[in-house]
Amino acid sequence: MKIAKRYPSVTVSTGQQRTYPRYDKNDKIIGWTGQASIDLKSTDFAATSQLIADLQETLVMDNLNFGVSDSKKDALEQKLMTEASRAFQQQAKNLTRAWNARGYRVVTVNLNTGNNYPRPMYSAMSMKSGMADESVPSQSFESGNSTISVTANGTIELTK
Question: What residue ranges of the chain have pLDDT lower than 70?
Answer without folding.
Answer: 115-143
